[in-house]
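[stage:ingest] chain + small molecule (iron/sulfur cluster)
[stage:ingest] validated
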Amino acid sequence: MDLLEKLTILSDAAKYDAACTSSGAKRSYQVGKIGNTSSSIAGCCHSFSADGRCITLLKVLMTNSCVYDCKYCVNRRSNETKRAAFTPKELAELTIEFYRRNYIEGLFLSSGVLRNPDYTTEQMIRALRILRHDYAFNGYIHAKAIPGTSPELVTELGLLADRLSVNVELPSEAGLQSLAPDKTKAAILRPMGQIRDSVVQSKAELVKYRHAPSFAPAGQSTQLIVGATADSDRHILHLTESLYQRFRLKRVFYSAYVPVVENTLLPSPDTKPPLLREHRLYQADWLLRFYGFRAEELLTEEQPDFNPLIDPKCSWAIGHLEQFPVEITTADYETLLRVPGIGPVGAKRIVSARRVSHLRFEDLQKLGVVLKRAQFFITCGGRIRSGLRFSASTLVHQLETIQRGELPPDGTMAQLSLFDTAG
Ligand code: SF4
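[stage:predict] done
[stage:export] tokens:
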């Protein structure tokens, strides 16, 4: 099999892995080395495939042969598909040739399990060693750490890569047992704990010794498949929160389940990938990381899934109307951050702008506030926005309409104003 055919098979087999953005590593050009990484180029080695999925220009598997039999995966051992494997030298040469031609800025390397996790990781390490040492490749590398790999090999891999990821894939142990019987929760979490500790240790050593070896400077991430099992959004969000807290993950990626194989334990092959659900989870993930929300605030046992028609922050605000309206001219930063349509940048700008001038609704858009959402939840100088009409019973519908991109005609669908304090 020639190299092009291998590349076609192994890049196609890698496209279902969403955890491929590269932001977070920063390393300048060094004399005698090829490439650099820049944290200012968000996801410098990613692109988007026709189905909207994030893929890198060189996002490949070492091999799509696998001794495991995860039921949702095209590469599982019981699936009849064409198999291929790069040799470490082939993969290193391919990467460097792509890099020299300016096709890529980095490598995202994953793999099926060939023989066993250790053997597979050794192949990946050999490829990365050739790239880093023989070709002096200094660009971004994201490598997959395969659950079950020996700690010594995870260490070696982390010293060659900028970011490591261990994919959780299925959000519950029950899901793992039924759909990925070769994997266990413990085997997945063990390398995550090791990577967390090694990153912390490496950072501490680099403070003391400038030339200490750097272990996965861009940290670690993981991927969760959404929709292959019956796990609720609430379950997924609580898992996400605990992964961020316990393992200091940089990112949790969500991947809407794409039916590629038929199995009675999986959704039917006609099921559409739940892309909107994936999107809502990304929005909620953002609220956990940058807005100070906790998973338990966003979803409850009674309401375990997000409303697909309204973003999670608006849904939360609708369920907590007693906390609104927020007065723009006096609310503190944390309170402003809870208002739909106000992000960290907008909240900071409001806090500094109001020190020097009297804010009006007209000023808020210039400060980065998405007024069509925020207007329902704020007052400015004690007044609601002029002409705004809504009530608690129409608010959900108005926000749904707005989020569908169809603004209501003059807000005339409601008679009462909940927060009309002007009068
Ligand atoms: S370990 Fe499972 S998910 Fe990974 S390639 Fe093998 S069958 Fe697919």
